[in-house]
Design brief:
The complex is a heterotrimer of chains A (335), B (287) and C (390). Chain A is built from 15 helices and no strands. By secondary structure, chain A is mainly α. In chain A, helix 2 runs antiparallel to helix 8 and helix 3 packs antiparallel against helix 11. Chain A is globular and about 55 Å long. Chain B is globular. Chain B has one domain: ABC transporter involved in vitamin B12 uptake, BtuC, CATH 1.10.3470. The mean pLDDT of chain B is 87. Chain B is built from 13 helices and two strands, in the order H-H-H-H-E-E-H-H-H-H-H-H-H-H-H. Chain B is 75% helix and 2% strand. In chain B, strands 1-2 form a two-stranded antiparallel sheet. Classes of the chains: A mainly alpha (335), B mainly alpha (287), C alpha/beta (390). At the B-C interface, helix 1, strand 2, helix 9 and helix 11 of B face helix 2, strand 8, helix 8 and helix 9 of C.
């Protein structure tokens, strides 16, 4: 709630013409970070690619949680469906072109989004959370049962994507996968910034604030939310497909409660209701996890716990939200 | 017919174990409005203390249970003062973040301090073995768990509905500011309720240890189950939680007996169906 | 040709592994989370080997780098393996508790020029995924097939199979079924229960109703095992004389103190018991017990890791510290040695370990502790699961 008002205030302080500039700035930030990441960790591109895929999942979660106020602990269902759609297309139907696989992933994710939306939107608050938990377990169990298609708990192995555009191979060093991922992320991000600012995006925010008033205005909250869920599914599916293409394996973990919960943690860590918050949360959480788990593979979980508690205590609006809040206060003090 | 009875007995026993562990969560979530994902962690602390007391120190079972309940409260009270107090009234997602963080810390510490192996709590001779019911036998400790569940339900009902403290608690839940204005010290009310909830968690952790064994990952492994049970029942309602536990225990048990291959499907489909029919929890309609 | 150039370039950019005097081994396993115990055992086995055999091969120092994958997560596993190879410059990959994690890494090996020594993951098919995989643990087919013969010899002809519904469970069920039916027995029912089963009473009722004389069970070691065995006793199945057969995962030593009397008399077949009576094992248990801190936590993954290190050391000896994965793997094909678990060898064909499988029974020792007492030995067992794949 507080996030949205803050965000609105922030955007309200900008003129319309400057929004396009902010879009470009956002794009520049992503590309800049991507270059910095590449230069700083040229030997760890696999981690960066994985981060990109998860960032897409967290962005997609932000669409329904941050902008529409849907509480879900089952968002990995969309991500995993995309990953399995891409993987199954490659293994069972011989569609090994990465762009085709990506298409399958987007489609799979969007379909899963519709299914999940149909169920999850039937309740609010805590019961909604429970519906999402039940759903993710059903998806997980289904993938486990359909082992002739999904490989069950052994994972769907043997995905061998063709070189991208017939030229760039997905190899050990992972440069192709990384660049591919960054391009996807940048594209999706730009698109999403347009969507959340469009009248449709505003409608969704309105629904989060007061669904009854929206209905009184003559709009259907359910329809709008379903639409958002499908979009969110497509975004998560993109992430899933990227994961399937870059790692060449899809495991049941991509449909797990753990991944769902982790993505929610990342989102809240960064700050809900803002696309930058979603990105910040993903980057900070995954880097932190990578560093502490490499430093002490046995007892790193405690450190992650401490980080989460510290963020709630010292940055209750999420990392990005708090920074923006501070910046605004500073600007106001200068006036 | 015998099969039906048999399933019913198992369902009752399993449901009551679930009830003992999750009723504390119902208190924190329903009355204090905190989505406390660390509930399982407190149950686990209780299990560890009882195991240490009974197995390593050789104390009696009853004493171990008491130590577990009060020991966990002693550990939890500073956590409440330092951390939970900051998130009363905060958005749910913030509470989720904080309590998951606490859970991670407790898991890490338990793993470090006690090692990753299973810990058992030796039962007293009176609770070992099984009782013959005529058509089948049932483990004695399960009957004990059923009795524990019933007495916890009765005691809680009495505390909330019939005592002065219960009145203050309900007032604080309905409107904290107004209750405070009328002289109710809400801070203390909250602290006491939190202690009660944590004590119940510890009790449940010990009593249910035969079914849900104590190990460091306990806190996350069963978190979902507790959360589902409480939400289906309607957070904050004792009768709702009781009915939900028995119902879900029954569905789970019947599903695992009749179609074990699809046990998970059965359980979660039922959960979806119940939530869709009773969006405010079972107790929301019954009242 | 192109591959070798890339590999050579990689070796150069990494820092000239050929002249380097530190050889790095990357170990991936579950070091935190619900399977932390098994990861701890990996480390204990590795530490024990290095304590006994030194941390040097020839002039080269050996350094082990650990990376944590708490639960099956192939994407994470692959990312970490890539990081280990490209950034840390490891010459050997080892560890892997879960099958999907190992499967995810196999496509990397050739390009990375790195052999993979599997210290646990137990699905038969992994070794077929790449010629650079060597396994020093076991497969479920390997450990579950002999118990079928044991069951038949014990005079049991009707058995109900109860397994957890995931890859290894299905493997165990198939292995037992194949073996038991070949011996002339009958599987009256095969139940696959969800992994997240807490209350096993309904399953026990099902077993009772099936009229079987024995039950074959497989569950991943840990808390579920405890619930299963307790439910077996409490529901009167033990008293009804129903026999309990399982592969040794169910009675791993670190779970025995928790299982207590409930486990007494359970017969399992497995490749390693901590109580195995041999001088090699005594040395190993002493060293590994010291490494893990609490000797009661010692269990089978430690021996897989110990022998895995033996294989890696032999590989380094054979290549003289040069990075040549194919030469390293070729060098250990047919390698035979006496492991703490008994005589073992690497099958040159499949690169899987050939070993003795022991029939054991959970027994109470004089000091009140419980152990797996070895009764019969099935010598030189290969992996029947590979034949079943074809």
């Amino acid at each position: 709630m507080t996030m949205v008002t803050m965000n609105d205030a922030l955007e309200g302080s900008h003129r319309k013409g400057r929004k396009f500039g902010r879009d470009l700035a956002g794009l520049a930030v992503i590309l800049g970070l991507a270059v910095v990441g590449y230069l700083l960790f040229p030997n760890n591109l696999a981690l960066l690619t994985r981060m990109t895929a998860i960032a897409l999942l967290v962005l997609s979660l932000d669409l329904v949680t941050g902008y529409c106020g849907v509480a879900t602990l089952g968002h990995a269902a969309l991500f995993g469906s995309g990953a399995y759609a891409a993987g199954i297309a490659a293994v069972h139907f011989g569609l090994t072109d990465p762009l085709l696989m990506l298409g399958c992933g987007i489609l799979g994710g969007a379909l899963a989004g519709l299914v999940c939306g149909l169920v999850i939107l039937r309740a609010h608050g805590l019961p909604q959370l429970v519906l999402s938990i039940a759903l993710i377990h059903l998806f997980h169990e289904f993938a486990n049962k359909a082992s002739s298609w999904t490989g069950g708990s052994d994972g769907l192995a043997g995905i061998a994507p063709d070189p991208l555009l017939g030229y760039f191979e997905f190899d050990l060093w992972g440069r192709t996968a990384y660049v591919f991922g960054i391009v996807l992320l940048a594209g999706v991000f730009t698109l999403l910034r347009r969507i959340v600012r469009s009248p449709f995006g505003m409608l969704c925010r309105g629904i989060k604030e007061d669904p009854i008033r929206i209905r009184a205005m003559g709009a259907s909250p359910k329809l709008a939310l379903m639409k958002m869920y499908a979009i969110s599914g497509a975004v998560a599916g993109t992430g899933g497909a990227l994961n399937a293409i870059s790692t060449q394996v899809v495991g049941l973990d991509s449909l797990s409660f753990t991944l769902s919960a982790e993505s929610l943690v990342m989102l809240v860590l960064g700050g809900t209701g803002s696309l930058f918050g979603a990105l910040t949360g993903t980057i900070v959480f995954m880097f932190f996890e990578d560093i502490v788990s490499a430093a002490n593979p046995f007892h790193w979980l405690t450190m992650v716990g401490v980080l989460l508690v510290a963020v709630v205590l010292f940055a209750p609006k999420g990392l990005y939200g708090t920074v923006v809040g501070l910046a605004m206060r500073w600007r106001e003090a200068r006036r | 017919m015998q099969t039906v009875f048999s399933i019913a007995v198992d369902a009752l026993a399993y449901g009551m174990v679930l009830f003992v562990i999750s009723i504390g969560l119902s208190v924190t979530m329903g009355l204090m409005r905190v989505v406390n994902l660390a509930h399982g962690a407190f149950a686990m602390i209780g299990g560890y203390i009882a195991s240490y007391a009974a197995r390593d120190l050789g104390l009696g079972y009853g004493l171990a249970v008491l130590l577990a309940v009060f020991g966990t409260i002693v550990i939890a009270v500073p956590i409440e003062r330092l951390l939970y107090r900051r998130i009363y009234g905060a958005p749910e997602l913030t509470q989720v973040l904080m309590t998951i963080g606490i859970t991670f810390c407790i898991i890490g510490i338990a793993n470090y301090a006690f090692g990753p192996t299973l810990k058992t709590i030796p039962l007293p001779p009176g609770l070992e073995g099984s009782v013959d019911l005529g058509f089948r036998s049932i483990a004695t400790h399960r009957i004990f768990a059923i009795l524990c569940g019933l007495s916890v339900a009765a005691a809680l009902w009495y505390l909330i509905e019939r005592t002065g403290f219960g009145v203050k608690l309900r007032a604080a839940v309905d409107d904290a500011a107004m209750a405070a204005a009328l002289g109710v010290r809400t801070e203390i009310v909250y602290a006491v309720s939190f202690a009660v909830a944590v004590g119940l968690a510890a009790l449940g952790g010990v009593v249910g240890a035969e079914l849900l064994p104590v190990e460091p990952y306990y806190a996350l492994r069963y978190m979902v189950t507790f959360l589902v049970v409480v939400s289906v029942g309607g957070a904050g309602s004792i009768s709702g939680a009781l009915i939900a536990c028995l119902l879900l225990g029954g569905i789970d048990t019947a599903g695992r007996y009749l179609v074990p291959e699809f046990g998970e499907f059965f359980f979660y489909l039922a959960v979806i169906a119940i939530v869709c029919v009773f969006p405010r929890g079972l107790a929301g309609r019954i009242r | 040709m192109k591959r070798t150039i890339i590999a050579a370039l990689a070796a150069l950019t990494i820092g000239g592994a050929a002249q380097a005097d530190t050889i790095k081994i990357g170990v991936i396993g579950p070091f935190s989370g619900p399977f932390a115990l098994q990861g701890k055992n990996f480390k204990a086995g590795i530490d024990a080997y290095m304590a006994l055999n030194g941390s040097k091969v020839g002039d080269d120092d050996i350094e082990v780098i650990y990376r944590d994958v708490p639960q099956p997560d192939p994407a994470q596993s692959k990312a970490l393996a890539q990081e280990l190879v490209v950034k840390e410059g490891v010459q050997y990959l080892a560890g892997f508790y879960f099958t999907p994690d190992a499967m995810a890494v196999t496509p990397l090996l050739e390009q990375a020029n790195v052999p993979l020594v599997i210290m646990n993951a137990a699905t038969s098919a992994i070794v077929t995924k790449s010629p650079l995989v060597v396994r020093t643990s076991f497969t479920l087919w390997q450990t579950s097939t002999p118990i079928a013969k044991v069951a038949k010899d014990a005079g049991v002809s009707k058995v109900i199979s109860v397994v957890s519904d995931y890859g290894p469970g299905v493997d165990a069920e198939n292995a037992f079924k194949t073996g038991f039916e070949a011996a002339g027995g009958q599987i009256v029912e095969a139940i696959r229960m969800p992994l997240a089963t807490n209350d096993f009473s309904p399953i026990m009722q099902r077993i009772k109703d099936s009229g079987a004389e024995g039950v074959f069970a497989f569950l991943p070691s840990g808390p579920t095992t405890l619930g299963f065995v307790k439910a077996f006793n409490e529901n009167g199945l033990k008293d009804a004389g129903i026999k309990f057969f399982a592969p040794g995962d169910l009675t791993q030593e670190s779970d025995l103190p928790a299982l207590g009397d409930a486990a007494l008399g359970i017969q399992t077949t497995f490749h390693y018991a901590v109580s195995h009576d041999s001088p090699e094992n005594k040395t190993f248990v002493e060293a590994a017990g010291k490494a893990i801190g609490n000797p009661a936590e010692l269990s089978f993954p430690s021996v897989g890791a110990y022998d895995g290190m033996h294989v890696v050391y032999k590989m380094i000896e054979a290549t003289g510290g040069e990075q040549d994965a194919q030469k390293a793997v070729d060098a250990v094909k047919g390698l035979a040695w006496t492991s703490p678990r008994g005589p073992v060898s690497i099958d040159p064909e499949s690169r899987h370990i050939t070993q003795n499988i022991y029939l054991r029974e959970v027994t109470k020792a004089e000091d009140g502790s419980y152990y797996n007492k070895e009764i019969t030995t099935f010598e030189k067992q290969g992996d029947p699961g590979l034949a079943a794949l074809k």
